[in-house]
Amino acid sequence: MSHLRLGDKMNIAKLMLCAALSLSMLSQVLNAQETERKTQRVPTLRAKVYDQLSRAQSFADAGKSQEAFSVLDEVKDKASSMNSYELAMMYNFYGFIHYNQEQYDEAIAAFEDVVKQQPIPTSFEQATLFSLAQLHMMRGNYDKTITFIEKWEDLQKATNPNADIPAKNLVLKAQAMYQKQDYARASGYINKAVAQVENSAEGYQVDENWYVLQRAIFYELKQPEKVKDVLLKLVKYYEKPAYWIQLAGMYGELGDEKQQLSVMEIAYQLDYVATASDIFNLAQLYYYHQIPYKAALLMERAMQQGKLAEDQRNLTFLGQAWSFAKENEKAIPAMMAAAALAKDGELDAQLAQIYLNQEQWSKAIESSQTALQKGSLRNEGTVHLVLGMAHFNQGDYTQALNELAEAEKHNSSKGMAQQWLRFVQSEKDTQERLQAGLSS
Predict the structure, then answer these.
(1) In the chain, count of helices (H) and strands (E)?
(2) Tell me: the pLDDT tens digits for 148-182?
(3) How far apart are CA 394 and CA 389, in angstroms?
(4) How high is the pLDDT of residue 18?
(5) What is the mean pLDDT of each run of 10 residues along the chain (440 residues)?
(6) Are 327 and 308 in contact (CB under 8 A)?
(7) Is 47 exposed, middle or buried (0-12, 13-18, 19+ CB in 10 A)?
(8) Where does 62-166 have alpha helices with state H?
(9) Which residues in 322-352 are b (16+ Cβ under 10 Å) and which e?
(10) Contacts of 102 by beta carbon, 8 Å cutoff, 6+ apart
(11) Taking the domains of the chain in order of start, what are their residue ranges?
(12) Tell me, what's the pLDDT at 202?
């Protein structure tokens, strides 16, 4: 199931930079600082530094990045007189502007400078550590992603040892482990994150992408039953066409073909079976479950609507479905069209069999001869057998015996050919005696 792999560049949420996102957030950081000062010694962000950072923020909000950098460079020139918190805020602004310009390596370097400054407010440091983890994830630095998440967790344990690890941390670690192809550890993290949200008293709904990641991990671990269970949740909470089709596919992989057909039929009623491959798969399911008429109708309708190409494969299956449904008059045009596209004689041989069943002896002979001319037949003896039967029914006993003798040379048709040889020879002898008696 190709739908189960995640891309190399993970889809991550907007970085939680916590500070410097807007002028209003500067005051929020100051308020957080005041709260933390009760429990730890954090330097003050002085007004003159605050004003300069506000100027830089104003330029950044206006899309004037160079002007913003110039202001920050002026601030940096006075770094020797700045305290740890002021330096951290300055580097945070550098990181934020680099991030907005998609200069991710520069953003990482700036944010790493943020956490080097000590002491700073714990909430500020944690937000920066999480941002660093996300950025390293985006850059494919999976080991560093885990390192910064674990630094976040160490800080959490130091300040609040009884607190649980947030689900978002677990998911990020699961993403990193998935990309490292350490699927067992990735499974542990994502399962814990999903369970944490599913069992929360607040009744939060698990993020769709978390389920998608969990499904991908279970798939890599070759746990189809668990993949199916996740898809059931995706269908329930995030009803998308792809999830229905994937769920049907998983039932098929688990060998539950009846449930596979049921899910596909529901998807079809919801108008989710739209692609050529999905339509053909549903038609095959109908055929497999002895419902050839629905298979043929689906194929025919899809071709008329331009959703399925009128190529050899589709026309052949359409003809076979109509034939299986005992609708030979509808099967013949489809098989004729398919046979005209085929380089070998296999489809002409099948068409000859249909003509024989329809008692259209001349057409059965014509199609059989075409099949032999094209060649590459899986069972040439059967074609000679059809020719023998058709010639017999036209009263041409000699030609019938010749064709049946050819059929007798092939193991797959030998037994049937011998029975027909005896029967035709008997009929020929009887006919000759009758003619001899009439002539005398």
Answers:
(1) 22, 0
(2) 999 999 999 988 888 889 999 999 999 999 999 99
(3) 9
(4) 33
(5) 38 32 43 51 86 91 92 93 94 92 94 94 92 94 96 91 91 96 97 94 88 97 97 94 96 95 95 95 96 97 96 96 94 94 93 92 95 93 96 95 95 94 93 78
(6) no
(7) exposed
(8) 65-76, 84-100, 104-116, 122-138, 142-159
(9) bbbbeebebbbebbbbbbeebeebbbbbbbb
(10) none
(11) 1-163, 346-432
(12) 78
Token pair belonging to 40: 């730890």
Cα–Cα dist 58/56, whole Å: 5
Q: How far apart are CA 431 and CA 419, in angstroms?
A: 18
- Per-residue DSSP letter, 81: G
Which residue has 């030998």 as its token pair?
414
| Predicted TM-score of the model (pTM) | 0.77
Q: Which amino acid, residue 26?
A: L
First to last CA, the chain: 78
Backbone dihedral angles phi then psi of residue 321, each to the nearest 5 degrees:
-65, -45
1-163 in CATH: which number?
A: 1.25.40.10
Query: Within 10 Å of residue 300's Cβ, how many Cβ atoms?
Result: 18
Residue with tokens 């460079």: 73
Are the C-beta atoms of 262 and 295 separated by less than 8 Å?
Answer: no
Q: What is the C-alpha to C-alpha distance for residues 52 and 60, in angstroms, rounded to an integer? A: 12
| Residue 183 near residue 177 (C-beta atoms within 8 A) | yes
Residues 6 or more apart whose CB falls under 8 angstroms from that of 291 comprise none
What pLDDT digit, counting tens, does each position of 203-240 carry? 789 999 999 999 999 999 999 999 999 999 999 999 89
Query: If you count them, how many residues does the chain have?
Result: 440
Question: What residues have CB less than 8 Å from 385, skipping those under 6 apart?
Answer: 403, 404, 407, 413, 416, 417, 420
Give 206's DSSP letter.
P
CATH no. of 346-432: 1.25.40.10
Asked if the domains at 1-163 and 346-432 fall in one CATH topology, the answer is yes
Give 207-233 as a DSSP string: PHHHHHHHHHHHHHTT-HHHHHHHHHH
Find where tokens 């192809």 sit: 181
Q: How far apart are CA 49 and CA 90, in angstroms?
A: 9
Amino acid in position 291: I
